[in-house]
Design a protein that fits this description.
Elements (H helix, E strand, L loop, with lengths): L3 H15 L3 H6 L1 H13 L7 H52 L4
Helix pairs in contact: 1-3, 1-4
Length: about 100
């Protein structure tokens, strides 16, 4: 199977992402790009029925991983926005406190 090595790597990357092991996920980027480049260079008629099924699974895994990453990004963005709002609120309280202190 020509697609098998890329499929195995996609499975590993997806599991790493599901386990929030972002280092393992990112560490496999270059290898995944290499596998996909080789697959893209193949002639369309070279892929067997098994290869096509594996390629379908590979694409489904990568799409699921992409959706997972988008969801995580949304959560992190929401948390960062909340932190920024709290920081602005704290800064406003400090300014108000400083201006209300009467010097002796």
């Amino acid at each position: 199977m020509l697609v098998h090595p890329a499929l195995l790597l996609a499975r590993l990357r997806h599991v790493a992402l599901a386990n929030e092991d972002f280092e393992a996920y990112a560490a496999a980027d270059a290898e995944m790009v290499e596998h996909c480049s080789r697959l893209g260079a193949l002639a369309r008629g070279v892929l067997s029925i098994e290869d096509r099924a594996a390629l379908d699974e590979l694409l489904a895994l990568e799409q699921a991983s992409s959706r997972m990453l988008n969801g995580m990004t949304s959560v992190v963005s929401g948390r960062l926005a909340l932190l920024a709002a709290r920081s602005r609120t704290n800064a406003a309280y400090l300014r108000a406190e400083r201006s209300s202190v009467i010097p002796l």
